[in-house]
Amino acid sequence: MEEQLKQLQDEAVMKAAAAQDLKELNDVRVAYLGKKGPVTEVLKGMGRLSAEERPKMGALVNVVREAITKAIETKQVSLESEAIQKQLAEESIDVTLPGRPVKLGGPHPLTRVTEEIEDLFIGMGYTVAEGPEVEQDYYNFEALNLPKGHPARDMQDTFYLTPELLMRTHTSPVQVRTMLKHEGKGPVKIICPGKVYRRDSDDATHSHQFNQIEGLVVGENIRMSDLKGTLDAFAKKMFGPDREIRLRPSFFPFTEPSVEVDVSCMCGGKGCSICKGTGWIEVLGAGMVHPNVLEMAGFDSTVYSGFAFGMGQERIAMLKYGVDDIRHFYTNDLRFLQQFSVHE
């Protein structure tokens, strides 16, 4: 038996050393150490040995098995190293070759316009305020001088979730919440960007969901001239230094007096299809904060005054970039979005 085990060891070690690849080496492992291999068969037959022979034979079998295992592992390390060297030689990489160009995206045009407006007003001392899109009726309407039953509510085409809960129709509720936090003490100087929702039929100029950014200034001795100067700076920043603005009387329940703000058309007043021959383009609504709104927010309207304005980023982007259909902003057409890539 000892001679047989010694012969098996020499034979297995020789075959392991002669193996040309990992598959051949694994075949040697299975042939000698597998469940049906000769070493295993010797172990199975140890039950037939006497009690004195069994420990001696068991120790010998372990020595043989460890010698074969060691020979196989040594050869495996050698074969793996050779395989790696061969692969490196065959698959060499020229690190001097230029890399493949990576296509970069860019900010969405609405994001770009929003950030540009934010940067302008932050530079003028405003802070950015945000609020919930699912809003209470009180903040969306009542605190803005629009009590229940007010006819101007019908102009908003509101999505109601419950009688007192709705999808906000403008970002003005953020102004109300901010004024309440100030507890009647000024100054307040904020802009409020965000999504708003109205029951509009989607077409080239309308969407049931769109973006809005509003501004609010409350303090002592705030005048209409402050509002006009602010909006004039905005128009020149967004549309060009040669643009002018004009204010037309209008009506909003939360401002008094209220105005519609027009920007001079890029045609220079000659009249074109964009301005419909008028030389002016309507861009936003504004006005002096209504005393009732100030009082409901806790401000003394005999001491404090303020102005507010609101605009849609989609309309600003359409005018700024010459986009003729608001739906382009939402359909994710790469042909459209690539025009606003970082490489423009």
Automatic annotation (TrEMBL):
- Pfam families noted in UniProt: Phe_tRNA-synt_N, tRNA-synt_2d
Q: Where in the cell is it found?
A: Cytoplasm
Report the transmembrane regions from the record: none
Is Magnesium tagged as a keyword?
yes
Keyword terms: Aminoacyl-tRNA synthetase, ATP-binding, Cytoplasm, Ligase, Magnesium, Metal-binding, Nucleotide-binding, Protein biosynthesis
Name what cofactor the protein needs.
Answer: Mg(2+)
- Pinpoint the Aminoacyl-transfer RNA synthetases class-II family profile domain residues: 111-319
The protein's annotated catalytic reaction(s) are: tRNA(Phe) + L-phenylalanine + ATP = L-phenylalanyl-tRNA(Phe) + AMP + diphosphate + H(+)
Name the EC number(s): 6.1.1.20
Tell me the superkingdom of the source. Answer: Bacteria
Instruction: Please verify whether the record's keywords include Membrane.
Output: no
Q: Where does this protein chiefly localize?
A: cytoplasm
Q: Which GO molecular-function terms appear in the entry?
A: ATP binding; catalytic activity, acting on a protein; magnesium ion binding; phenylalanine-tRNA ligase activity; transferase activity; tRNA binding
Q: Where does Mg(2+) bind?
A: E256
Query: One Gene Ontology cellular component annotation?
Result: cytoplasm
Q: Any binding details for the cofactor?
A: Binds 2 magnesium ions per tetramer.
Enzyme class of the recorded protein, top EC level: ligase
Q: In its UniProt record, which GO terms are filed under biological process? A: phenylalanyl-tRNA aminoacylation
Per UniProt, subunit arrangement is:
Tetramer of two alpha and two beta subunits.
Q: Would you identify the family this protein belongs to, as annotated?
A: Belongs to the class-II aminoacyl-tRNA synthetase family. Phe-tRNA synthetase alpha subunit type 1 subfamily.
**Name of the protein described by the UniProt record:** Phenylalanine--tRNA ligase alpha subunit
Species of origin reads Domibacillus iocasae
The upper taxonomy is: Bacteria, Bacillati, Bacillota, Bacilli, Bacillales
